[in-house]
Automatic annotation (TrEMBL):
GO terms for biological process: iron ion transport. It is a multi-pass membrane protein. It comes from Exilibacterium tricleocarpae. It comes from the Bacteria. This is TonB-dependent receptor. One of its GO terms (cellular component) is cell outer membrane. Keywords: Cell outer membrane, Ion transport, Iron, Iron transport, Membrane, Receptor, TonB box, Transmembrane, Transmembrane beta strand, Transport. Its main location: membrane. Pfam families: Plug (PF07715), TonB_dep_Rec_b-barrel (PF00593).
Length: 812
């Protein structure tokens, strides 16, 4: 193990918090609401399982409101993370989004593992591929940072994403909106809410979104960046009595769009080294990303009296996904490789919650249970020509290096074949025929029976070879919890909470011999990427976690808090690594110490939210992509290590005038890591100290401006946001020096976006023009690819180019 230590004294932290405390001392009472224009909005959240103002909750919370969704055009959590410091989402793959809070991320696509960030929709837990549920008719999104397992349970080790849709209301209301833009964008959304009787209310919303890709694909894999998704939700609320209500809801979400980006930048791509050319050549067969998901939910709320109440929720969610990706970035049949991730999952989630509220104590206690059944298939498909490439060195005796062959040499090249076969035949080349290839195979195997004889005659060109891993999982989670918030004095509150969690997992692996090997047994082939294996495993993990929080009101407008909390994520299994049947992944255990301050200053003109945290993770699960000794090819695999993250998060909102509001979100983060050495895609040892772990406020911030100048008719609002994110790619374990030769790789992200809207008097009509990435910044966001070393085909993903359009909305 190598310990990689990065330290920082955070010199401004104590001074900043101290200054904020002194600053707040002069604040007395609430100022009058700002008349007209903007005001500091009160956002109600349920971070502590009861409704409270976000400014009164002693937790670091990021919120995203309907206005934020309209201003940014966000469709899911993948498009909102730049507006919450310390929260990140890997963009580009709807069914394989990777959520990160305060540097703690989730492992790869494995269904045998769990995310470190728990996602809830309408009060129910949402697993992996369902976390990117489409935003439509939402009340808000809450990002709760730090361990939240006490109240939220399963996998809330690093934090929680809580997506809250609107509930049916007593009044008749609705809207219809259209967003039209370049790249053929058409997005239509509508909502209608009606009272069916004095105590029965219905709300229906739907959204349809389509967009063309931003590059022309000359191959068959669809245009990169294309979008096609629909969502529908129906909810009915029945107020049975003045103390009891029942809500039933159904939601459906479908995505069927082009495969995620796979822009070739290698020597065999359409435009080598240029990720921003207008055309690509991807030839993935039946490529695309799809998800078909539905869910039904029942929620019962009952008040026993003025102090005691209860809530019960039951949810069933089912989804099927596929994500077939071009992993070579070329249309060259000699270098064809694609991967897919196919899932079929259903989950039952239920929770009973009891609340007690009085002047001196607020208590919430309850129990939750979930049961999930999963099926996963992970196929890897290559052409026989891909296998014959000498770039697949481990499969062909590393002959490229042995024979000093040029980069990209291919065995079917007559000159290469002559030299290669002569080395096997006493100096005399073998004929380039089926007989000659058969002789070559025999000579190779005679020399080393361990070597896979993946050599095929040119007559097999166009044939495909598929290896697959099949997994099933049966996961059960249950827990009990209690959390009490005591009012010690009018200004001081102490909260204490505890949870006991149980996770049980049954998991299987089945990696059969490749289809080509089964069809051609005389060749004696065996698997290259996914070794043939069959295994099953069962395990059980338990953990008690809790929190202790003190919050003190420095004035009517300012609160400071200190907390210690623990979080837990169960151990698990790596879908691609049957060896974890005997050596399962360790549980992830987190301890977080936090100091925070929230307040409104200068007569409620400046709102500040500041948090300092020190988070320790034992058994952190990390995904790496590489080729370990003995592997026949590169693959994703999981490792465990330890992390200590420290940082400061700052959110400022300033009402400069009644018509001008400025915002700033930034953070500082520093890490200390202990992880084992890994191997990169070329089989080279990568010490853990290869990664960078300091993020500075001047390099990571989002600045916002909202201006509402007075106009004769209606209201005008001008919104700008500017996102700056420092390059982090060079510090990742998979980084290769050759990546730096690709234009746009390693650049900092600088994205300017704007929206100008007009709202009629009375609020019935809204018209807006908008643009994102207005400077058309060209940025490579990642370089990877399963064929990066095996067939020399690195893939790039890039920032979306400049997009622009108009919004039309009618409210009724």
């Amino acid at each position: 193990m190598i310990s990689n230590k990065y330290t920082c004294d955070l010199p401004f932290t104590r001074g900043l918090l101290a200054a904020a405390v002194l600053f707040s001392a002069g604040q007395t009472g609430y100022a009058q609401e700002t008349g007209g224009g903007f005001k500091l909005e009160e956002i109600i959240v349920t971070a502590q399982k009861r409704e409270q103002s976000a400014m009164d909750v002693p937790i670091a919370i990021g919120t995203f409101t309907p206005a934020d969704i309209r201003d940014t055009g966000a469709q899911s959590i993948m498009e909102m993370h730049h507006f919450v410091p310390g929260f990140e989402v890997k963009e580009g793959q709807v069914t394989q989004a990777n959520l990160t809070i305060r540097g703690i991320t989730s492992p790869n696509i494995s269904t045998g593992g769990d995310p470190s960030v728990a996602t809830f929709y309408d009060g129910a837990y949402v697993p992996r591929a369902a976390t990117t549920v489409t935003f439509s008719d939402l009340e808000r999104v809450e990002i709760l940072k730090g361990p939240q397992g006490t109240l939220f349970g399963r996998n809330a080790a690093a934090g929680v994403v809580n997506i809250v849709p609107n509930s049916p209301q007593a009044e008749t209301q609705g809207f219809i909106s259209t967003r039209i833009g370049n790249l053929g964008l058409v997005r239509v959304e509508g909502m209608g809410n009606v009272a069916l009787s004095d105590n029965l209310f219905l709300r229906v919303n739907a959204l349809v979104n389509e967009r063309d890709g931003f590059k022309d694909n000359l191959g068959s894999g669809g245009d990169p960046g294309g979008q096609d998704n629909q969502t529908v939700r129906v909810a009915m609320l029945w107020e049975i009595t003045d103390r009891t209500d029942l809500q039933l809801s159904y939601d459906w979400d479908e995505i069927d769009q082009a495969a995620p980006q796979g822009i070739g930048v290698g020597p065999f791509a359409l435009t080598p080294g240029d990720a921003f050319a207008s055309r690509v050549a991807n030839d993935v067969i039946d490529g695309g990303e799809a998800r078909d998901m539905y869910s039904v939910t029942a929620k019962v709320n009952h008040e026993f009296d003025d102090q005691w109440s209860m809530k019960y929720i039951a949810n069933y969610r089912e989804f099927e996904t596929r994500n077939r990706i071009d992993d070579d970035g070329t249309a060259d049949p000699l270098r064809y490789i694609d991967t897919d991730n196919i899932e079929d999952s259903d989950i039952v989630y239920t929770e009973l919650q009891v609340n007690f509220n009085s002047d001196s104590v607020n208590l919430v206690a309850g129990a939750n249970y979930s049961q999930e059944d999963t099926f996963q298939e992970i196929p890897t498909t290559l052409s026989t020509g891909s296998i014959m490439s000498f770039m697949a060195g481990p499969s062909v005796l590393n002959l490229q290096e042995l024979l000093d062959l040029p980069e990209g040499a291919h065995l079917w090249n007559p000159d290469i074949w002559a030299g290669f076969s002569a080395s096997l035949n006493g100096g005399t080349p073998l004929p380039q025929t089926a007989e000659g290839y058969t002789t070559a195979i025999g000579r190779i195997r005679a020399g080393n029976e361990e070597v896979p004889p993946h050599f095929f005659a040119p007559s097999t060109a166009g044939d495909f070879y598929t290896e697959s891993m099949f997994n099933t999982g049966d996961f059960t989670n249950y827990g009990i919890y209690a959390d009490a918030d005591f009012t010690v004095t009018p200004d001081l509150n102490i909260a204490v909470g505890i949870r006991y969690s149980v996770d049980e997992k049954d998991f299987t692996w089945n990696a059969p011999l490749s289809d080509y090997a089964q069809e051609n047994p005389e060749l004696g082939l065996f698997n290259i990427f996914i070794p043939q294996a069959e295994a099953e495993a069962s395990d059980r993990w338990t953990k008690t976690t809790g929190r202790l929080v003190a919050n003190y009101r420095l004035s009517a407008d300012v609160m400071a808090f200190a907390s210690v909390s623990t979080g837990y994520k169960a151990g698990g299994y790596d879908s691609l690594e049957p060896a974890t049947a005997e050596l399962p992944l360790d549980p992830e255990e987190i301890t977080n110490f936090e100091l925070g301050l929230k307040g409104d200053f200068f007569d409620q003109r400046l709102r500040a939210q500041v948090s300092y945290y020190d988070m320790t993770v034992d058994g952190a699960q990390r995904t790496v992509f590489g080729q370990r000794p003995g592997d026949t090819g590169s693959t994703f695999y999981l490792i465990n290590g330890d992390i200590d993250n420290r940082g400061v998060e700052i959110v400022l909102d300033w009402l400069v005038t009644d018509t001008l509001k400025l915002g700033l979100l930034t953070y500082f983060a520093d890490e200390e890591e202990t992880f084992p050495d890994t191997f990169n895609d070329r089989g080279e040892l990568v010490p853990g100290d290869k990664s960078t772990s300091t993020r500075r406020p001047q390099d990571n911030y989002t600045a916002k401006l909202d201006w509402s100048p007075a106009i004769p008719v209606g209201e005008l609002n001008i919104h700008l946001d500017y996102i700056v994110t420092e390059d982090r790619l060079r510090g990742t374990p998979d980084f290769l020096d050759s990546f730096a030769t690709v234009d746009g790789y390693g650049d900092d992200r600088e994205i300017l976006s704007a929206r100008i809207s007009w709202l009629s008097d009375g609020g019935d009509y809204e018209v807006a023009v908008w643009g994102r990435n207005l400077t058309d910044s060209e940025l490579v966001t990642s370089i990877s690819g399963l064929g990066l070393s095996t067939i020399n085909t690195p893939l790039a993903t890039i920032e979306d180019p400049r997009t622009y359009g108009v919004d039309l909305r009618y409210n009724f």
